[in-house]
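ok new one. same drill as before - structure tokens go in, u give me an amino acid for every spot. 467 of them this time. try not to just spam alanines like last time pls lmao
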């Protein structure tokens, strides 16, 4: 058999791929509330799911709608199942677009719309990849399923429901992140820590309130503290000096003995806390130099003992590390304090594949006790990892190298991709190395050449993995 020219097969279908991608992008598939049971995430998302399933049916695939939560398009025969996990929901368009966010306009070699790169463009690439394999009449020894999620941007209720009712693929990939291949993702836990209020305590300085950060997975870039002094103070000079020493921006204002301090940090994603400057932790470092009332002193003391300058968990006794996914990281995304309710911390911890959630939670519990802090609640998304020698990875590496002539590097990340919904799954594209990240941004686009390249890569990958 002569080698298949996958790029040529894609080129033959270029006009159709672009026109159909435009139609798909013109459906505003944003999560909305709904009364209809068969449309759990609203009419826009339902319409996008139907669009794909109808397309699959018309092209002769077998299709299934799983209660409006998800669906699949299937080809081939055999015991094993190859899954390609995509999603049709998009985040709201937001403001500031220079084109219609649901127009699918093509200009300068790019196709523009909310969902162009995340994840409707790549979904169409995967669809046409499967169609090319079918059109060529290539024999497959496995079944291949495009699994269509509808709630990836919110709560993943789509994959939860789908895998409660449908078979887990033997292996698979998700075209919903970066090329070449993301093979390892850290575990992610959000831990909420609460301080027990202490009654009737006094100090020479009263911390009235403290606020910094609103989201677990972001480094806070602003912190505000309100302090009350019952005697003379040189706090203004002291704070100015602190800001100067740290080369930071901030302010202090005085209203008859009540001082409001603000501090500006640098925001960053929660998976890379050291890339930012945590405004809250920095201000807590300053507060640690004051003689605070007992309750506030516990709150500030706890932060300074275990969290300030401890982004790799070294102060909490959580410096876990391995070769696959690197260091554990702690982002303190939320900090708040007021006199009635006492203190509150929200930690976003990313842990390597060799670490264990129970060990992490027990360690935090143990450290927190002496400061009257307790873990109120935590969530956990387990680390995800496919062995480098696994057939899936070996095959995708070979395909990527052949199609692009680039090194098929394996990437390990702190964030979580949709691939973790699969038991043996990796993220495989669609963003090529060096391309601008525009998912969730205004004027989201996908480079048309990349859309076509990805289609050829996915077609060969499907064939090689399922032949
Ligand atoms: Zn996505």
């Amino acid at each position: 058999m002569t080698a298949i020219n996958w790029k040529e097969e894609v080129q033959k279908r270029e006009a159709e791929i672009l026109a159909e991608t435009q139609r798909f992008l013109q459906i505003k598939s944003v999560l909305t509330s709904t009364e209809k049971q068969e449309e759990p995430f609203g009419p826009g998302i339902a319409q996008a799911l139907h669009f794909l399933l109808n397309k699959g049916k018309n092209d002769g695939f077998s299709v299934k709608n799983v209660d409006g939560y998800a669906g699949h398009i299937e080809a081939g025969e055999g015991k094993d199942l190859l899954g390609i996990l995509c999603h049709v929901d998009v985040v709201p368009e937001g403001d500031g677009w220079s084109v219609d966010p649901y127009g699918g306009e093509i200009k300068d070699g790019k196709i523009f719309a909310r969902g162009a790169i995340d994840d409707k463009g790549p979904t169409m690439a995967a669809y046409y990849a499967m169609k090319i394999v079918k059109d060529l009449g290539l024999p497959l020894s496995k079944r291949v399923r495009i699994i269509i999620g509808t709630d990836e941007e919110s709560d993943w209720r789509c994959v939860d429901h789908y895998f409660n009712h449908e078979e887990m693929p033997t292996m698979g990939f998700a075209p919903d992140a970066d090329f070449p291949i993301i093979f390892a993702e850290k575990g992610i836990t959000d831990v909420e820590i609460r301080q027990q209020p202490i009654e009737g305590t006094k100090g020479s300085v009263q911390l009235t309130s403290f606020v910094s950060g609103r989201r677990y997975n972001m480094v806070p870039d602003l912190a505000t503290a309100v302090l009350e002094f019952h005697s003379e103070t040189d706090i203004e000079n002291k704070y100015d000096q602190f800001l100067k020493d740290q080369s930071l921006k901030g302010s202090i204002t005085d209203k008859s003995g009540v001082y409001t301090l603000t501090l500006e940090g640098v925001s960053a994603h929660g998976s890379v806390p050291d890339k930012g400057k945590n405004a809250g932790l920095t201000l807590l470092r300053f507060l640690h130099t004051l003689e605070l009332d007992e309750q506030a002193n516990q709150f500030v003391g706890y932060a300074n003992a275990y969290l300030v300058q401890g982004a790799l968990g070294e102060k909490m006794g959580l410096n876990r590390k391995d070769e696959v996914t690197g260091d554990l990281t702690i982002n303190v995304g939320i900090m708040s304090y007021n006199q009635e309710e006492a203190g509150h911390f929200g930690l976003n911890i990313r842990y390597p594949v060799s670490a264990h959630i129970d060990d992490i939670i027990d360690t935090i519990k143990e450290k927190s006790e002496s400061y009257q802090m307790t873990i109120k609640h935590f969530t956990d998304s387990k680390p995800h990892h496919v062995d480098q020698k696994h057939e899936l990875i070996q095959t995708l590496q070979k395909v990527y190298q052949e199609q692009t002539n680039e090194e098929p590097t394996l990437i390990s990340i702190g964030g979580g991709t949709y691939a973790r919904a699969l038991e043996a799954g990796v993220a495989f594209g669609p963003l090529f190395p060096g391309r601008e990240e525009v998912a969730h941004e205004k004027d989201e686009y996908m480079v048309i050449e990349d859309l076509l390249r990805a289609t050829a890569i996915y077609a060969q990958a499907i064939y090689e993995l399922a032949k």
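The pocket of zinc ion is lined by residues 87, 118-119, 152, 176 (CB under 6 Å). and btw Residues 448-466 form the longest helix (19 residues).
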